[in-house]
Amino acid sequence: MKQGKLIIFSAPSGAGKTTIVKHLLQKYPALSFSISATTRESRGDEQHEKDYYFISKEAFLHKVAHQEFVEFEEVYNGTFYGTLRSEIERIWDAGQHVIFDIDVEGGLRLKRKYEEDALAIFVQPPSLEVLKERLSGRGTDSPEKLAERFVKAEKELNYADKFDVILKNYDLETACAEAEKLVGDFLNK
Q1: Helix (H) or strand (E) holding 150
Q2: I need a labelling partner for 165 at 20 to 30 A (CA). Which of 12, 53, 123, 183 fits?
Q3: What pTM was computed for the model?
């Protein structure tokens, strides 16, 4: 297995990281998306083994016990997310670099583990109010789940300075162009 690079995009939910990552995947064929494992139910048109590996809590905890994750956490009460070691190996074995769309604490864990081989980018929304509007506008979460996301988002915004780069997503087109430059420079190092 030849080790490639890791590009980590983290942000509070609703900051635009998923849209930016999808843009970069179209721009850079050498990138491959790391599919996270989760214990939550799929939302909308999400597909197993494409958007996430949807697994039971029991199966997730079994994988934790057998050290199959490079990082994992209970992101919301009773809901786990993690990056399987086999997922990174699958991408590297294909001769590609890994790009992540991952929560803030998971992103920092990956950066600490892979250090110079990883670029950790924090996507910063214009404000907490805009973030709340975006999340509410999705229409995918109950009022209780939205409240939980808002509390987590406030906490996560405080981690921005621990990342290699803060990418301000005040205008999506500008943020995508800046992300292209950051990723291109890192891949060519």
Answers
A1: helix 143-157
A2: 53
A3: 0.89
Whole domain around residue 169: which residue ranges?
A: 6-187
**Is residue 43 a contact partner of residue 149, using CB atoms and an 8 Å limit?**
no
Is pLDDT of 49 > 90?
yes
Q: In whole angstroms, what is the distance from residue 11 CA to residue 130 CA?
A: 14
Pairing of strands 69-76, 97-102: unpaired
- What residue has token string 């995918």? 140
The total of structural domains in the chain comes to 1
Q: How far is it, in rounded angstroms, from Cα 70 to Cα 52?
A: 16
CATH code, 169: 3.40.50.300
pLDDT at residue 148 tops 90: no
Residue 94: CB partners within 8 Å, gap ≥ 6?
32
CB atoms within 10 A of CB 56: 9
Whether 134 contacts 13, CB under 8 Å: no
| Tens of pLDDT, residues 85-112 | 999 999 999 999 999 999 899 999 999 9
